Amino acid sequence: MATSSRGEFGDFLRSRREKVAELAGIGVDWYVWLEQGRTVSPSDATLDALASALRLGKVEAAHLRALARNGDRRDFAPESVPPVIERLVTSLNLPAYVAGRRWDIPAWNAAAADVLGFDRLDASNRNILAFMFIETDSRRLFGRAWTDEARRMVALFRATHDLHAGDPAFIELVERVRAHSPEFTKWWNAHYIRGGTSGQKVLTHPERGAQRYEYATFQANDDPALRLSIYTPV
């Protein structure tokens, strides 16, 4: 395991239940080594036993396995959106945008600008996490649902971040958001993990008021780091 992912692997374990070594059928010392991020390679059976002892859900268990198996990753670099995907996004009448590995937003269409206001963001905040916790407009956009939506985003981003822990670009983003938001810091330290690429949101337009949307996310074959999100009015 890469050094950074070993540290996040240990942090993930420490954030859950204590004294699970016996329930998992492993030695206490070995469990402590896992928490400390030492260079050990737990078997699939051990990971399953840990997930069971910690009472992890399906998404959390998958995250635990991903952290344990995570090898060296390429350093982060801002993604380039292929022209064909840019043309696709621009041609859609529905709000649509492309997000990268770090949740940066390199492309969006006029409908997304109208509803989500991405074109009004400072270049450094053209990132979903920064938009949610640094840009005050996000609270107007989500209204009373902001807290639930923000907490959900933290848990979703955590699953991505932990696989790239130690990358300077991810560290910079997290520290910048921490400095602006005590809510983010609280939820980040709780180490919640969740999945999900579709659902519904109620978004408040400054002129048209609250509107409900269904959203779905699609991964690009040419670059799996790119994800296209499309919002359909309900």
CATH class of the largest domain: Alpha Beta
Q: What is the fold-level CATH name, i.e. the topology of the largest domain?
A: Beta-Lactamase
Given as residue ranges, the uncertain stretches (5+ residues, pLDDT < 50) are none
Please trace the helix and strand order, writing H or E for each element.
Answer: HHHHHHEEHHHHHHEEE
N-to-C span: 44 Å
In total, the number of domains comes to 2
Helix content: 40-55%
Counted by DSSP, the helix tally is 12
Q: How would you describe this protein?
A:
The protein is α+β, with helices and mostly antiparallel strands and 234 residues long. It folds into two domains: 3-69, lambda repressor-like DNA-binding domains (434 Repressor (Amino-terminal Domain)), CATH 1.10.260.40; 83-233, Beta-Lactamase (2-Layer Sandwich), CATH 3.30.450.180. The chain has twelve helices and five strands. The chain has helices spanning 3-14, 21-24, 28-36, 44-53, 58-69, 83-91, 110-116, 128-133, 137-142, 146-161, 168-180, 182-190, and strands spanning 96-99, 107-108, 198-205, 209-219, 227-233. A five-stranded antiparallel β-sheet has the order 2-1-5-4-3. Helix 1 packs across helix 3 (28-36). The longest helix is centred in the middle third of the chain and has 16 residues, at 146-161. The model has no long low-confidence stretch (mean pLDDT 85).
How are the elements arranged and paired?
Blueprint: H1 3-14, H2 21-24, H3 28-36, H4 44-53, H5 58-69, H6 83-91, E1 96-99, E2 107-108, H7 110-116, H8 128-133, H9 137-142, H10 146-161, H11 168-180, H12 182-190, E3 198-205, E4 209-219, E5 227-233
Antiparallel strand pairs: 1-2, 1-5, 3-4, 4-5
